[in-house]
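Provenance and format

Records in this collection were gathered into a single text stream. Each protein contributes a sequence line and a C-alpha cell line. The two records reproduced below are adjacent in the stream.
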Amino acid sequence: MFRRTSRLLLALAASWLAVPAAVAAPQIFHRDDVLGTSLDISVDASEAPAQAALQAVLAETARLDDVLSRWRDDSELSRFNTRSGAQAVSPDLRAVLQLCEHWRQRSEGIFSCRLGRVAERWRQAATSGVLPPRDELRALASAAAQAEFEPARSGALTRPEAVVFDVDGVAKGYILDRAMDVARKAAPAARAIKIDIGGDARYWQAAGETAPWQVGVADARRPRDNGAPLATLALRDGAIAGSGHATRGYTVGRRHYSHILDPFSGWPMQFAPAATVVAPDAASADVLATALSVMPIRDGLALADALPDVAAFVLSDTGIPFVSQRWPALLADEPPRAANEERLVVDYQIPQIAAERYFAPYLALWVTTTDGTPVRQLLVLGTRSRYLQSLPQWWRRYGRDDLPAIQGIARPTRLPGAYSLAWDGRDDRGNTVADGEYLLQVEAARQAGGHEFLSLPFTLKQGRALDSQHRGQSEIGTLSLHLTGR
C-alpha cells in the first residue's frame, strides 16, 4: 500500500471536463484502494479504448507500487533502503532518486527525500508516546544532508549509510506522469484524459479541444467533502498537486504534529502554509507543493515564478492567501488580460528625518474596500514581527499572530528616498476586483520616532484615468497615485 497518497486528499475539491452537447460524454471510472487511496479517470473516447486506458493505468500504478512504496517490505525501494553496498536498480527507481536529488539541489535542501530515518523515529514516537530528543533528530537530519550520493545514469548505486530514502514527496507525481503515458498509448484517439489519484491529478487535451478542464481547489488546511472551492482553474495540459499539514502526521501523547518535516532540524513544521501548485508534469507539481509548505511564503512564490509554466496558490496558517505571478491567468472566470497589467501606480517617498540616531521606518501599503475590508497587500517593509506590531492598522488586518503571512511579503526596511509600486487590480487570491470605490491604506512607524497612518480614497473604473498627490505630516512623505484607466 502506498499510503502517502492520502496526504493531498481534497487538495482538489472537484474536477470535470466541460464537453459540448454534440460530443459523446467521456467515459468515467472510479476505483478504490489504488496506492492506498482512490483513483478517478476520465477518458474522452469510445468505450473500448477508454477501458483499455483504465486497465493500462491500473497495471502501471500496481507495477510502480512494487518499485516505490515505502510501506511494503517487498518493494524495490525497501530493499534498497535495507541493503548495503552497490545495488542494481530499476530505471524507475533510478529516475525517482535522480528527481529527488535534482529538486534537493534546486530548492537548496528544502525538499529532501533523505529523511527516512527521521520519519521512522517519529513513527516510533507516535507508538511510544515519547517525543524524540531534538538533538537526536537534528543529528539524523544533518548526517543525511551531508552524505554524498550521486544517482548516476547507469550502473549500480550505493546508498549512503546515513540515508534512508523516503520518496513520498515525488513518487505519486511520477506515477501519475507514467500513468498518463500508458493511458495515451492505450487510447490514441482520445480527445482528453484526466487521471486523479487521491487529489493529485494529471490532465491532457488533444490539440483543438475548446473546453478546458474545470478544477476546483479546496482549502488544504480544512478539507471538507462538501466545501466550496477557494478557486476554480481552467486547465488544458499539465498537473496539479496540493500539500497541507492538517490531514496526516504523528500524534504523540495528546499533541498532533505535521508529517512534513523540516529538513534541517528534523522537527515537524509548525504554523506552516498550505500550497497548491500547477506545473507541466505531476512530479514537479508534487515536489513543489511540498517545498512551498516548508519554505517562507515569499521564497516559495519566487521559486514558482522562476520555473517555466509553474503557478502556485499558498495559504498561510491562518488563511491569508498569496499567489504567484502566473496563478491569475489560470482562473476559470477571469477574462484574458495582459501580464503584469498596472491599474494603479503609487509613487511614495520615505522622508529624510533629522534624528540623533536614525532608524529606517517600518512601512505597509495595502488596498481595502471603503469599510476597511482587506483587498490586497501591496508592500510591507520590515521583517521583525515585534516591530511590525508598531503598525497597528496593518497588524490587526494581516500580521497579527501570523508569522508566515509576515514572511509572505515582508522585505527589509529602506533608507529615505523615492520608490514606486503598482497594483494590477486583483485581490489577494488573484481575482480581478470590481470597479468601484477603494482605499489605499499607508502606515509607517519608526523606532525612536513617530507613527503615521493615511487612508486615501480612489475610484477604480475602466477607462477613467486620474492623478492625485498627497503628503504625510511626519513619517510618510509625498504620495502620488496614478490610475491608468485600463
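Adjacent record:
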Amino acid sequence: MTTAPYVQTPPGDAPHGSRREHIPKGIWQMAFTELWERFSFYGLQGILSFYLLYSLDKGGLEIAPAAAAGIVGAYGGSVYLAQLLGAWAGDRLISPKRMVLIGGIVITAGHIALAALPGLTGLGVGLVLIIVGTGALKTNITTIVGYMLEGEETSRRDAGFSYFYMAINVGAVVGPLLTGLAQNQLGFHYGFGLAAIGMVAALVQYIPSMKRLPERAGQVDNPLPRDRRFVPLAWIAAAIVVIAIAWFTGLLHAENLSSIVTIIALIAAGAYFAVMLTSRKVTAFEKRRVAAFLPLFLLSGIYFGLLFQKFTAISILVTERIDLHIGSWTFPVAWITMVSPLSAVLITPLIARLWQRLGKRQPKPATKYAIGLMQIGCAYAYLLLISSVTGDATIPLLLILLFMCLAGSSEVFVGPIGLALATKIGPKSFEAQMVGLNFLSLALGSSLSGLLGQLFTAIPNGTYFTIVAAAGIVLGGLLLLLRRPLNRIIE
C-alpha cells in the first residue's frame, strides 16, 4: 500500500520531549472533499424539516409535525442504510475511489431535483437520489482515510480521524449557514440550489486528487465473479417493486417510515454482526473485538438518536415555541441547528490536541463514548429546566442556542472515535463492511430521532425531556462502570 507524504502539525511542545504527531497530507484532501459534501448534505438537512413543517404561504409543504418527523427520521436513516450497499459495492464491484465519484454525481442530481421540481415530486425524487448517492460516497471515502492511516498508533489514528471529522462539521456549519440565509431571504428552493453548488465544489475538489490516493483505493478487494453480477441488480429491482406496492397500497406512509427504517437498521446490524462472528475468515481475536464493539454500537445509535433530534423534536419545538425575531429581522431557523456542529468544530482542535499530548494516557474509546452520552443527557436536563421555567410561554432564542452548544460539542467524544474504531478493529476480510456497520449506528440514530420526534408531539414537553435526559445520563454512567473490560478487548 502507498500512502500520501506526511506533513507536520503546528509546532509546540510535545509530551516527554518527543516530536508532535504527523497527519498524512492526503487526509486533508479527503477532508476538504468531505467538507463540501457535508456542506450540501447539512445545508439541505438544515432547512428540510422546516420545508415540511412551514405553511404553504411561507413556501413550505404544511405537513403535520408527526408525519414530518417520520419523513425526516426515515430519510436520515435511509441515507446511512444505503451506505451498507455502498460499502458492499466498494468491496465487490467498483473501487472505493470510483464509488466516491459516482456518488458525488448522483447527489448533485438529487439537489438539482429538489431545487427545480415543485412540491412532493421534487421532494421524493431529490431525497431518493441523495440517499443513493450518499450511500455510494460516504462509506468509501471513510475507507480511503482508513487506508491512509493503516498501521498507525491509536493516538495518531484518533487525531487523523478527529481532523477528518472536524472537516465534516465545518461543512455542517457552513452549509446551513448559507442555505439557511438563502431560504430566509429568497425561499426554500434557492437554499436547495445552493446545496447543489456545494456538491459541484466537492466534485471539483475530489477529481484532481483521485490519482494521488493510495493504490489500494483504486482496487476492488473482493471482486464478485462476473457471472454473479446480475444478482445485485435483481435484488435492487425486487426491492423497488416491493416499496412501490407498499406505498401505493397504503402499507407504507409518512407516519410509519421511521419505524420501518429503525427495524431494517437493527436487522441489518444483527446480520452484519452474525456474519462476522460466525465467519471462518475471521480469527478468534478479531471476533472478540467485534463482540466488544456491539454494546458500543448500540449506545452510539442511541446517542445519535438524541443528537439528531435537532432535525425532528427540536425543529418542532422551534416552530412552536421559539421567538425568531430580533428587532425587525428574523433569525434563520437553519442557523439554530447549525450551532450544534459549530460547537463541535470549535472544540475539535482542542480535544484532538489533548489526545496527542496525552498519548497513551488519554481516555480509552469506551470512556470517551460514556462522556459523550452523559454530556448530551445533561444538555437535555438543561432543556428540561428551561421548559419547566417557561411553562407554555415562548422560549428565548439564546437559551435554545446554548442547548445546541452543549449537545453539539458532545459529538467529538463519539463520532470520530467510532470512525477510528471501525477502521482499526474491523476483521481483515470485512474492513469496508465494518465501516458500513459503524454508519449503521447513524442510521439507527436518525430513524430513532424520527420516532422520538413523534413521541414529542404526543406527550408534554417536560415529560419528554425528562425521559431523554435520563436515558443519556444513565446509559453513559453504566458504560463508564463497564469501560475497563471493553477497553481491554478493543485496544
